[in-house]
Amino acid sequence: MKRIWSLIVASMMILSLALTGCSQQPAEDASKDEFKSQIFFKGSSTLAPVVSQIATEFIDANETWNKVNADFPEKSIDLFVSAGGSSAGVKAIIDGTSDFGMVSREVKDEEKEKIADYKEFRLGLDVLTISVNPENPILDVKKNLTTEEVMKIFSGEYKYWDEVAPGLPHNEIVVVTRDIGGGAHQVFQDKVMGDAQVKAEAIQEPSMGALVTKIMENKDAIGYASYGFVNQNVGKITPLEVDGIAPTEGNIISGAYKISRPLIVIKSGELLPQEQLFVDLMLSEEGMKTVEKMGYVPAK
User: Fold this and answer.
1) Is the same domain home to 121 and 267?
2) Are residue 208 and residue 239 in the same domain, yes or no?
3) Is the pTM value of this prediction over 0.90?
4) How far is CA 69 from CA 19, 62, 65, 277, in A?
């Protein structure tokens, strides 16, 4: 019951944030002498469920800050986690509208230059798998795609499945991506597409969960699904090998599977004691177990 109540509270917080158009602001608006009981996270829709899970368990176990540290006041622990994409997470830190940004790609040098006293905390690794519906006949004849074949599929040079391999049906390939301006697509563009562009007809989904759902709903769909989401949906989507390398934990850690990306929490400036405490929790053995439980490769 306690856990359910925490989830309800978390949902109300997120709803409130949406309704007020981010009118609730992070630390800068509070008095320097006033203990800040609210901590805001914004960014990657891939990383948001991981941070939310750790936050929910933290609230369940403690409820108020004084139960975590006797020097803290008896104020409720309010952790706001808002998904909007990696670039939105970086922008929120640059604009000062969130305490922490969640990013599932490397942060660019030009972005770091805009963030005073830049800090980052690496929670884990993820890769973009090239995944299809388990009923897609390609799995019976071809379980590996070269980088060039992936590029041709996503660019529209291959329009039908029988152009990918003889014997496949003359069905149109349904390409599913994240929004083109998002962090996941940036990784895919850099590591697979190069100078080629994804075809205009591709379906752009607003979150990784929506992308995976589209693949599950359509046997002719193909998309770049997060490794974590593949592990959360075993049997519902199937990843292909790329250049003969399967997206396994071993190949991710070794770097053999090349469409990889880090899972990072970023911050501008020094951390408040309560912020440091929660960051330490995310990086602890307990936090790493949650990262692994959610399907990703923990940072340590």
Assistant:
1) yes
2) yes
3) no
4) 32, 10, 6, 9
Instruction: Tell me how many domains the chain contains.
Output: 2
Residues 168 and 240 reside in one and the same domain: yes
Q: How confident is the model at residue 179 (pLDDT cuts 50, 70, 90)?
A: confident
Identify whether the C-beta of residue 181 lies closer than 8 Å to the C-beta of residue 125: no
Q: Which residues pair with 238 in a beta bridge?
A: 132
Question: For residue 280, what are its two tokens?
Answer: 């330490």
Taking a C-beta distance cutoff of 8 angstroms, is the pair 63, 10 a contact? no
pLDDT tens digits, one per residue of 142-161: 999 999 999 999 999 999 99
pLDDT at 180: 84
Token pair recorded at residue 196? 């080629």
* Contact (Cβ atoms closer than 8 angstroms) between residue 88 and residue 22: no
Mean pLDDT of 67-89: 95
Let me know: does 282 contact 53? Beta carbons within 8 Å: no
